[in-house]
């Protein structure tokens, strides 16, 4: 199979969808990889590194996009929709429930799109996990920074010092992002509370962290109380594929101390905080509303591209190899985890939560692919 790797164009997105080691893997299996020039530079990989691994460097995005399968990191931006065409296999993060225009373009053009974030194996999301680990760890670091006075924050140190109270951090959603946010916030010495909807998950968190953290059941009363008392709130909820529920209301935000900080990591699925009304960028990451600092960057791992690119491609390449070796239909037939990744095919929406949230008819992956075979 011919596989194209365009350079990422989102603001400050320095990750790339493949490393030279990944190229070698694909080339050794008989495939050809076409990498847009300088695509890897932000992650520390030069064109020559890819060439030595067996890739062909192409001078333009168009020459990466015209291959049978395109691998990316972030969801395509409107300027890339022109590259879509019937039968193109697109393997990347998509977050379609929060990206209706992108969903429409993929459907209209008949793209076979597989979203990293909905590939699901044994109730885990293996292609989301490493980036959630990165973003979770970053969220506490970032929150701590924006609590500094010069950054618009309250002017507190999360760990306090002897004789001075520690800062309070509330993490809503105790999955991968939440657990990693808690590790770093606890390491900084903060007083940490995790809120989750799943009693089983709260029990696991209690087993992991012991009495060092507080766990709370997710309900509007507990969230309101915790948000009011917190210096930093981190949004880390996910309902796979679906638009994130608004769990922190504007009224709750108004009860926070001026200079408190909200980091809505779940912004890539639309965000869980009502006052997060825009996606921010690494160039301009925050805005202030009701005197509270809001951070809503949808590609947080893009700020640490070397770590993130390697972590991401460690998990994506084995799936890309299955698609390239067997063809997309057989690869999905053999691997139900990959089939869960299918979001659109042949003009149909094949992920139920995306179809429901965006108002499309849901067609199962099997039915959508059957239509393709009879075309
Ligand atoms: N902004 C960024 O750069 C990045 C954002 N993310 C996003 O972070 C979000 C979280 O991802 P993960 O931690 O990997 O998901 P996860 O599936 O590991 O964890 C989600 C948690 O939310 C909990 N939950 C569901 N409904 C809830 C509710 N009503 N109240 C409280 N908890 C609830 C679940 O029980 C689960 O423990 C996703 O939207 C993901 O796409 C991930 C990486 C980077
Ligand atoms: C998960 C995601 O969208 C990211 O890492 O940017």
Automatic annotation (TrEMBL):
Which GO cellular component terms are attached? Answer: plasma membrane
This chain's source organism reads Halobacillus salinus
Write out the pathway annotation from the protein's UniProt entry.
Answer: Amino-acid degradation; L-alanine degradation via dehydrogenase pathway; NH(3) and pyruvate from L-alanine: step 1/1
Give the Gene3D superfamilies listed for this entry: NAD(P)-binding Rossmann-like Domain
For biological process, the GO terms are: L-alanine catabolic process
Query: Which reaction does this chain catalyze?
Result: L-alanine + NAD(+) + H2O = pyruvate + NH4(+) + NADH + H(+)
Q: Which SUPFAM superfamilies match?
A: Formate/glycerate dehydrogenase catalytic domain-like, NAD(P)-binding Rossmann-fold domains
Give the enzyme's EC designation. Answer: 1.4.1.1
Query: Which stretches make up the Alanine dehydrogenase/pyridine nucleotide transhydrogenase NAD(H)-binding domain?
Result: 147-296
| UniProt keyword annotations, A-Z | NAD, Nucleotide-binding, Oxidoreductase
Please give the name of this protein.
Alanine dehydrogenase
What family does the Swiss-Prot or TrEMBL record give for this protein?
Answer: Belongs to the AlaDH/PNT family.
């Amino acid at each position: 199979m011919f596989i194209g790797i365009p350079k990422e164009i989102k603001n400050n997105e320095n990750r790339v969808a493949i490393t030279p080691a990944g190229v070698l893997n694909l080339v050794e299996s008989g495939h050809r990889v076409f990498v847009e020039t300088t695509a890897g530079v932000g992650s520390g990989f030069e064109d020559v590194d890819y060439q030595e691994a067996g890739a062909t460097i192409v001078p333009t995005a168009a020459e990466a996009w015209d291959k049978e399968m395109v691998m990316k990191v972030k969801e395509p931006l409107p300027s890339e929709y022109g590259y879509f065409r019937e039968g193109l296999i697109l393997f990347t993060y998509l977050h379609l429930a929060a990206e209706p225009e992108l969903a429409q373009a993929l459907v209209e053009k008949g793209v076979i799109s597989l979203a990293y974030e909905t590939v699901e194996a044994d109730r885990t999301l293996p292609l989301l996990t490493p980036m959630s680990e990165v973003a979770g760890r970053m969220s506490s670091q970032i929150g701590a920074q924006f609590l500094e006075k010069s950054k618009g924050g309250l002017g507190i140190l999360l760990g306090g010092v002897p004789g001075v109270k520690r800062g309070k951090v509330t993490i809503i959603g105790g999955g991968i992002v939440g657990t990693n946010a808690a590790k770093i916030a606890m390491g900084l010495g903060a007083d940490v509370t995790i809120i989750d909807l799943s009693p089983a998950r709260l029990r696991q968190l209690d087993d992991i962290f012991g009495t060092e953290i507080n766990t709370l059941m997710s309900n509007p009363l507990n969230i309101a109380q915790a948000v009011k008392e917190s210096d930093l709130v981190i949004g880390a909820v996910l309902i796979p594929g679906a638009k994130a529920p608004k769990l922190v209301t504007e009224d709750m935000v108004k009860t926070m101390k001026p200079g408190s900080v909200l980091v809505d990591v779940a912004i890539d699925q639309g965000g869980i905080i009502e006052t997060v009304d825009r996606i921010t960028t690494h160039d301009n990451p925050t805005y202030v509303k009701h005197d509270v600092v809001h951070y809503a960057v949808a590609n947080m791992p893009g700020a640490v591209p070397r770590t993130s690119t390697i972590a991401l491609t460690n998990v994506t390449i084995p799936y890309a190899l299955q698609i390239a070796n067997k063809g997309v239909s057989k690869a999905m037939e053999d691997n139900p985890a990959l089939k869960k990744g299918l979001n659109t095919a042949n003009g149909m929406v094949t992920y139920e939560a995306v179809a429901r949230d965006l108002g499309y008819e849901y067609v199962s992956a099997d039915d959508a692919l059957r239509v393709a075979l009879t075309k």
